[in-house]
Please model this.
Amino acid sequence: MAMIPPWEPEQQRYALSERVYLLKADKIEWGIYSSVYYSAEYNGFFKDQGYEYEGWRDPFWIYEGEALIGGVVIAPNVMFTLFFIPPFRDERRIVLLLKEALISWSDLSKDIIIFEVLPDQVELLGRAGFWPSAFRCRWMQRPTEAFVITWEDCFVVETPEMIQQDGINQLRNENDIARLLYRSFAGAGSIDAIRRQQTDMQFYQEDIREYVSYTNDLVRNASTIVVNSHTNEVVGACLVSMQGSYPAIYNIAVHPSYSGQGIATRMLQTALSNLKGHYPVLRLYVMQGNTAESVYYNLGFMPGPIEVQRMYIPAQTDRLDSNRT
Model:
């Protein structure tokens, strides 16, 4: 067994065994291979991305001797987009070597995570010791389109406004939006919030603060804040962000007291209308079984493949706690 060299961001080659090694890849060429070998169904859904790899983490080739057998994106505490090139079939051996490398490189006080695992690799990674998260998710998308949208006089519809506070960009009414998200999900006893363990107000405050890092003027103009004109309470919010080169719904929520009034549909229609002519599609990421799925289907959003949002090796502290119970 090879001694795995320590992780260095500029390192080009990592030996995983006497014959198996990782070699840092050219992103353009690696993107072509991953678009062919990762998953035809998944890549067909994201066909607009073509053969480009747009992630900021470095991708690697997987070699056995002189033979190119696959590719992966890997770094301390994280791995994703693992694929193998036919006719190679000994995937489990390679996954175990990758797991060993991850353990040697990672901060073991934190989870080691594999993101967005597609169905054909769930069992493979599970047999290697990665735990699947409890929920399944999927991307949905539809073409942008101009709609005629009308609102009742009791609603004031605004575009989120960016301000600076102590030199930091933030949304002007971020606390009101966070409070809406809390009431709409955790405060309403949402099964999604419970399953995701997103049941405290602090989570939603931090989530809104992070939003400004994933937006620009175009997608923010496609976002909507709905305010009750009589009480000035924020009763709806649809925040659009960037996912790679294309817009995606960052978060959408309607106050429980206003559900069933078509607010979510009209906010999505606003996003689709304002993005028309700038981007070809709008995407969103939804948990399987979320009651909002019907809204998306009825508005013409097409679902992609179901995926396990993450599989992971739990932090050592988590494992110690579970062993005590």
In short: The chain has two domains: 13-133+310-324, 145-279.
